[in-house]
Amino acid sequence: MTAAAIIGMGAICSAAAGVERGFEAIRQGTDGLSRFDAFETGLKLAPLCSPVKQVPGLSQAPNRTAAMALCAAQEALAPVHNRRNLKLHIIVATTVAGMSRSEVFYRKFREDPTTAALAAQELGHHEPTALSGFLCENLGGASFCTLSTACSTGLHAVGMAKRSLTQGADLCLAVGADALSLLTIRGFSSLMLIDPSGCKPFDKRRAGISLGEGAAAMLLASEKAVRLLGVAPLAFVTGWGATADCHHMTAPHPAGDGAMRCMRAALNEAGLTPAKIGLIVSHGTATPDNDLAEITALSSVFAVVPPFCSLKRTLGHTLAASGILEAVFAVCAMQHGCILPTAGFQQPDEAIGRSPARYREQPLEHVLKNAFGFGGNNAAAVISREATG
Amino acid sequence: MNYSACVASFGAVLPSGILSPEGLIIWKAGQGVLDVSRDQILDKPYPGFGKLAMADRMAFAASSVALRGQEGFTGETCGISLGIPFGSLSTDFRYMESVANGFPSPALFSATLPSSPLADIAIFHTIKGPCRVLCNAAGAGIGALEQGLSLLHCKKAASVLVVLLQVLDPADAACPLIADTAPRETRAYAFLLCSQPSQHGDLRTLNASFESINIAESGKPEEVYFDEFLGLLSRHQSGSIPFNAAGYSGIITIEKDRSWNSSSKH
Amino acid sequence: MEQLIETLKKQIITSLKLSDVAPQDIDVDAPLIGGPLGIDSIDTLELLVLLEKEYGVTVPDVNVGRQVFSSVKSLAEYIKKNRPKE
Fold it and tell me: Where are chain B's structural domains?
């Protein structure tokens, strides 16, 4: 399978709108968490989250997720001034979609059933597929497809975009977006997965996730499209893998079985030995289970574990967006030649036996990105500076 | 894009009853699709069956019917491709209700994920390969079929379960908030596709071509195509089904290169 | 206490939607989590909701939780000890 060229990227997260500014916050190891106050959560103490402070175009978009998705998508498409009649396929990853708006409306409806008259308008963009339709319309897309596999969806979208290029498509935009919502805040809270003092990836004291919101996009192009458009690829998606843990609805396989298999699959497809990977941008959600399982998996795949990091203290866990959002910053790390820090990490955990790396400059040829979703739905991608042979 | 695969088995839970290669079992008096019981779709006990949220239970039921007698379908080389046109709308409302009541339900929350049926099927039937979920409104099933065939074609899996799920809680059918375009009936389809014929069970060959199109127009409601597909398989016939769904247009062809050996008595 | 245990068994079956299980099938001394009823960690969280809703009882942390949910009997004892007096 040939590598897919990445010719454009876009991102919006709590740190900033825009890839370069977002990357700066990542590079500095910024703590992106603050006490959530955008709306009443009903919890005794609102959790620490990573909200986007200003969402461009919010009033013109059907909902928050859509506004952020469009913002990131437009940035990713910017390098291509003239598409030269190439068709654009759009693959969208989301779990929240219009829920952030629907839940507000639902509460109004409970108090006043006559508001049902507004249902079509308020709930019209509830479904993930409506988000894709909205993007397709605004970006002049030829077709769209909507994925939803929880926290691994973003990376699934990248993998699917890569695959569609090998099957005749020329331009494929993978977009991931999720807004903060009462549903996810209360949901993760009821599963006791939120760390009240903020996520601490790989840290001995870690006790759960911190939620964030954001969107990211990657524009992938075939060889033919790269030539025709006269653009220089930023990097290449050279390998991709996906597996199922077959274990539990919300807890990962303790030995990281599914994670290990999908990393191996990604490396195989890229035609690389593990030793070639210079940096791993982990899933690193900071739950006691995930971080241990993930490092166990890494230790099985890599005889010498390369430097690894988690970006979730800076970005929050952006759910369906996380796979792509963090992959975008993995590309930046390769472009800038540096190992990324892990904000929130202080005390090593003997049970894990390894610590994430500190920031340093280092040329990188290949980076691995992991994303693991609820239900044991795993994805991994290898991104390289050059298309491997 | 053209694909070929073998259809090893199928299962469907429909308003008319439970359909499998053995034939159609109609519902008992007073029983409907949503009342499907564990013993109708699974031979071994499964205390967790009743716990499954509606969408999960329907997908699980259809998948279990399709997987009956297919002992080889397990492990790392097996994947699942699931199409849900409308996410989990009914469950979303149930969950919002539990939040509004002050007691958010953890089980309902994890069921609001469109991918939660995948986990239930994968865990019970020990499926460890690639799994994906498409929420393409009017074309989710066709999209899931394309994805499933693609997984086989790219050798990411040797066999794949393609599932189309349409679920509507009857309580919500009366709810003024549910859009007119949401499904008004619950139906679940599962097709077991393999890249190679298996040692046991007789197979039909499936050829399908897909062309990406702009989604705006859709031909017939998707379930019409899948009902035709089931019809050809059940009647041991060859045939072609041109389709025009959200996202793709193309044609599904069933060929009779080995006849289906059904154990039902004609 | 016997009454509470009988009621609890029914509530567990209902709240966790256990199928193929009747109250007389539940062994009050058998482990709840990971035991014969196939109860997992999400079910445990649902049981926490049940405790709070029906009995006004909460569980302060995961370690106490492990003890409380070790069997139906220990669950009943915890409720009896901690429920607000009427």
Answer: 2-86+116-255
For range A22-29, the mean pLDDT: 97
- Note whether C43 contacts B49, CB cutoff 8 Å: no
The answer to whether the CB atoms of A243 and B130 lie below 8 A apart is: yes
The pLDDT mean for chain B works out to 83
Which CATH number does the domain housing residue A144 bear?
Answer: 3.40.47.10
Residue type, A321: A
Residue C60 distance to chain B (closest CA, Å)? 17
B130–A167 CB contact, under 8 Å: no
Structure tokens at A204: 């001995």
- Report the C-alpha gap between A114 and C61 in whole angstroms: 43
Backbone Cα Rg of chain C? 12
Computed from CA positions of residues A65, A67, A73, A75, in that sequence, does the dihedral angle turn out positive or negative?
A: negative
State whether C46 and B46 contact (CB < 8 Å): no
Q: Where are the domains of chain C?
A: 2-82
Number of separate domains in chain A: 1
The residue annotated as part of the active site, out of A71, A136, A151, A262, is A151
Count, in order, helices (H) and strands (E) of chain B. 8, 10
Q: Say if A161 falls within a structural domain.
A: yes
Task: Give backbone dihedrals phi and psi of A233, rounded to 5 degrees, phi first.
Answer: -60, 145
CA angle centred on B82, ends A179 and B204, rounded to 5° = 165
CA nearest A181: which of A286, A54, A38, A53? A38
Residue A389 within a domain: no
The residues facing A143 across adjacent strands are A89
Does A253 participate in catalysis according to the annotation?
Answer: no
Contacts of C37 in chain B (CB under 8 A): 47
Identify which of C42, C49, C62 has the shortest CB distance to residue A250.
Answer: C42
Q: For residue B265, what pLDDT band results from cuts at 50, 70 and 90?
A: very low
Give pLDDT, residue A347. Answer: 97
The pLDDT mean for chain A works out to 93
Q: What is the model's pTM?
A: 0.90
Find the range with the poorest average confidence among A73-87, A123-137, A280-294. A123-137
Fold of C2-82: 1.10.1200
**A311, pLDDT greater than 80:** yes
Which of C12, C17, C46 would best serve as a mutation to test chain B binding (most B beta carbons within 10 A)?
C17
- Residue whose token pair is 């290449």: A236
pLDDT above 50 for B264: no
User: Tell me, which fold does domain B2-86+116-255 have in CATH?
Assistant: Peroxisomal Thiolase; Chain A, domain 1 (3.40.47)
Does B126 or B199 have the greater pLDDT score?
Answer: B126
B62-73: per-residue pLDDT in tens?
A: 999 999 988 888
Closest chain C CA to residue B103: C49
pLDDT digits (tens, 9 = 90+) for B221-239: 888 999 999 999 988 888 9
